[in-house]
Amino acid sequence: MLEVQHISKRYHYQKVLNDISLCFPKAGIVAIVGPSGCGKTTLLHILGGIDRDFQGELLWNGRSVKHRLTRYRRRHISFIFQQFHLIMWLSLKQNISLPRFFHKQEKADFALEMDALKQQSLTSLSMGQRQRLAYLRSHYHHSDILLCDEPTGSLDPQYAKAVMELLKNEAKHRLVILVSHDEKLVKEYSDEIYYMQDGEIINHDILSSQKRIEHFPTIHHQYVFSHMRLAFASLWSHKGRSLQLIMGLLLSLLCIVTALTLTRHLEEQFHQYIYSLVPASGISFQSRYQQSLSLELLDQMQNQAGIIKSEMFLDDYECLGIGFESDHYEQSQTLFIGDDTSPYTYLSLQYGQYPQANNEILLSLSTARHLYGEQDVSSLIGQNVYAWYQHDWEVKGICYKIVGITNQTTTLDTLYQMNHAYIHLLKDVYTYDVNQVTSHLGILYVHPDYQREDVIKQLQKQYPDYEFMEIGKSTTQNVSKTLEQVNMILAIFSLLAILSSLFLIGEVMFLNVVQKKKDLAIMKCFGASSLDIMKIVFYESLQILFIAQSSCLILYYQIIQILNTFMKDVFGSEMFSLQMDMYVVGVVFVLCALLVFISQCPPLFYILKMNTVQALKE
Ligand SMILES: Nc1ncnc2c1ncn2[C@@H]1O[C@H](COP(=O)(O)OP(=O)(O)OP(=O)(O)O)[C@@H](O)[C@H]1O
After folding, report:
1. 149 CA from centroid of ligand 1 (Å)
2. Most CB contacts within 10 A, which of 95, 137, 481, 555?
3. Which run of H or of E encompasses 320?
4. CATH assignment of 2-223?
5. At 382, is the pLDDT very low, low, confident or very high (cuts 50, 70, 90)?
6. Where does it live in the cell (predicted)?
7. Per-residue b/e over 549-570, b at no fewer than 16 CB within 10 Å?
8. How far is CA 510 from CA 78, 234, 429, 539, 607, in A?
9. Residue 598, burial from CB neighbour count under 10 angstroms (0-12, 13-18, 19+)
10. Position 504 pLDDT exceeds 90
11. What are the φ and ψ backbone dihedral angles of 281, each rounded to 5 degrees?
12. What confidence score (pLDDT) does residue 573 get?
């Protein structure tokens, strides 16, 4: 049984309700009538548990419910408002079954009444139809008390009577409290009437009494994923704005994920590329006093532990390329040849054998293909090619016989030959004395079982007049350092981009809550707690995040594919190929989710502080 004791309420300095005590029956229609502004609606809000800011007691079955109003509303209260308070971004059915989004329902069957409205959109409904919807919604939640604020206010007399008949029928099973101006209509249908004036009850008429007839409606469970569904409906209701948010977040996520993947992968692949040009086992050396190197010195060094091959590059002799033509190197078949990149003893043969004489060479598989096109490269074995060298602007060719093809693919076209072979061959072509040619740069190759640093230390001790350096190390270090800086800058910019879009999400969600606060208050009237409302708002931003992140994953995959095709075209090999970096994706997505959570604090805080009665009036 519902009871209020010594209820008083003030708005600033105005006393709206003054020490009201009432005791209501279990069933029947109880009307509250009085002039405009006397406090009827205020009293109704207190009875409905949506206004918690009052003095006095609200009792249900003798127990105070002032501190558990959400539970009280859910179990015992439903409303019909004068302005209907329908939620325009929900469907007809969702509006009617609104209470079921928040708790399980004892639902009456109203399929017949629904059929007439089913075809229409909410905005196209007439006032009478909206009134009917509001009635159906209150009926959906079969509560102990139905509170009606001017339920016939906007209806023509004929339809008003029909609504009163419905309420009369309702009142057999529950208590109907209605606030109305229409004293005549009220007298015709009410069992009790309270007369109010200036916030006080001035009279009470009991016209008849109604015994409550219990009925046992079917029980419907709460909708599954109810908060998610409401969040999605809310998101859909402002789809333009949501799309902008999703696009903003998607672009920032895509930028940061792609940029970080590029720099992380490119660093690795730059290193690989550098090592494909300059072997990881190479040590370069030169005299500290600018003295020329000699073949004896090379032979001496080659006998050191851990060294497997030594080379020296003649200062003024440069290999221009190889080709099949004997008369001139500038032919289309001529290939530019890089310096050989590793001792051939450690390369696996695909065809043929290792060189046995100075004029025999090995080709890397990629060079053989380059030279011979689509044809079977094994038929290159035994063929002659010409390597063209330039000295003092004079270009001369040395004839080599291809004896083998390795299975190696190299970035630059490469040929391998016996130690110092080209020095001996050039001597005959250019006719010089081997001891007279100068060379200031030598290369040593370290056995894979040895550490380059250790070998360098050893060499440094033994040959103090020479300076030894790891080939490619400083370049890779420089590349790593530069890419690290690029990474850092990218990360900062991307973080700023994500922060700004999250700030935007926070801002838009806040505006959204402010804009929809009346709808959220309506939900509260139909059983939602503050936590339910917070969940809806939070899930809405999670949905934005989810859509942005999943679209980002799809686009990220596409971008990686496009970049790989592009790089394959540009570099002509698959050396620079990217893969989806799930580590980067994971870190960025988790960080972003965390920031979304933080960006939701202002709207969620706003909901906690929201005044339901105030919000309903807006
Ligand atoms: N949020 C508010 N802030 C300040 N004053 C308010 C607020 N809400 C209502 N009032 C005042 O409280 C008084 C009672 O208002 P209430 O709406 O309860 O009256 P009512 O009897 O239902 O009037 P009506 O029949 O016209 O709806 C009015 O004087 C109104 O101006």
Report:
1. 13
2. 137
3. strand 318-323
4. 3.40.50.300
5. very high
6. Cell inner membrane
7. bebbbebbeebbeebeeebeee
8. 29, 13, 84, 14, 10
9. exposed
10. no
11. -95, 0
12. 62
Ligand 1 close to Cβ of residue 40 (< 6 A): yes
- What is the residue whose two structure tokens read 């060499």? 459
* Cα-to-chain-centroid distance, residue 564: 23
In this model, does residue 124 exceed pLDDT 90?
Answer: no
Side chain identity at residue 139, one-letter code: H
| pLDDT, tens digit, 9 for 90 and up, residues 274-311 | 666 666 678 889 999 988 888 888 888 888 888 888 88
Q: Which helix (H) or strand (E) holds 388?
A: strand 384-391
Taking the C-alpha atoms of residue 90 and residue 523, their distance in angstroms, rounded to an integer, is 11
Contact 54, 17 (CB under 8 A): yes
Which of 345, 317, 308, 337 is closest to 443 using CA atoms? 308
Helices 601-609, 530-571: inter-axial angle, 10-degree rounding: 170
Specify the ligand 1 atom closest to the Cα of 614: 1
pTM of the model: 0.66
**pLDDT per position as a tens digit, 62-97:** 899 888 888 898 888 988 888 888 898 888 888 888
- 25 CA to centre of own chain: 56
d(CA 6, CA 29): 22
Most informative mutation of 13, 15, 16 for ligand 1 (most atoms within 8 A of CB): 16
Long-range contacts of 377-386 (CB under 8 A, 24+ apart): 377/351, 377/405, 378/351, 378/352, 378/405, 380/405, 381/351, 381/352, 381/405, 383/324, 384/324, 385/322, 385/323, 385/324, 385/361, 386/322, 386/323, 386/324, 386/325, 386/326, 386/329
Name the closest-CA residue to atom 20, ligand 1. Answer: 37
Q: In b/e form, how buried is each residue of 501-523, taking b as 16+ CB within 10 angstroms?
A: bbebbbebbbebbeebbbbbbbb
Show the DSSP H helices in 431-529 as ranges. Answer: 452-462, 473-515, 517-525
Q: How far is 290 from 439, CA to CA, in rounded Å?
A: 10
Beta-strand relationship, 384-391 and 415-417: unpaired
Domain boundaries for CATH 3.40.50.300 within the chain: 2-223
CA distances from 63 to 5, 48, 59, 68, 526 (A): 12, 15, 5, 11, 22
Q: Kindly report the average pLDDT of the chain as a whole number.
A: 84
pLDDT for 1 equals 82
pLDDT, tens digit (0-9, with 9 covering 90-100), for 163-190: 888 888 888 888 999 998 888 888 888 9
Q: What is the DSSP letter of 167?
A: H
Is 36 near ligand 1, meaning CB less than 6 Å away?
yes
The interface predicted TM-score (ipTM) is: 0.95
- Rounded to whole angstroms, how far apart are CA atoms 437 and 435? 6
Identify the residue whose C-alpha is closest to ligand 1 atom 16: 39
Residue 107: pLDDT over 80: no
In whole angstroms, what is the distance from residue 216 CA to residue 224 CA? 24
Whether 422 and 357 have beta carbons less than 8 Å apart is answered as no
pLDDT in tens, 350-370: 999 999 998 999 998 888 988
Q: What is residue 112's predicted lDDT score, i.e. its pLDDT?
A: 41
H-assigned helices in 516-581: 517-525, 530-571
Ligand 1 contact, 44 CB (< 6 A): no
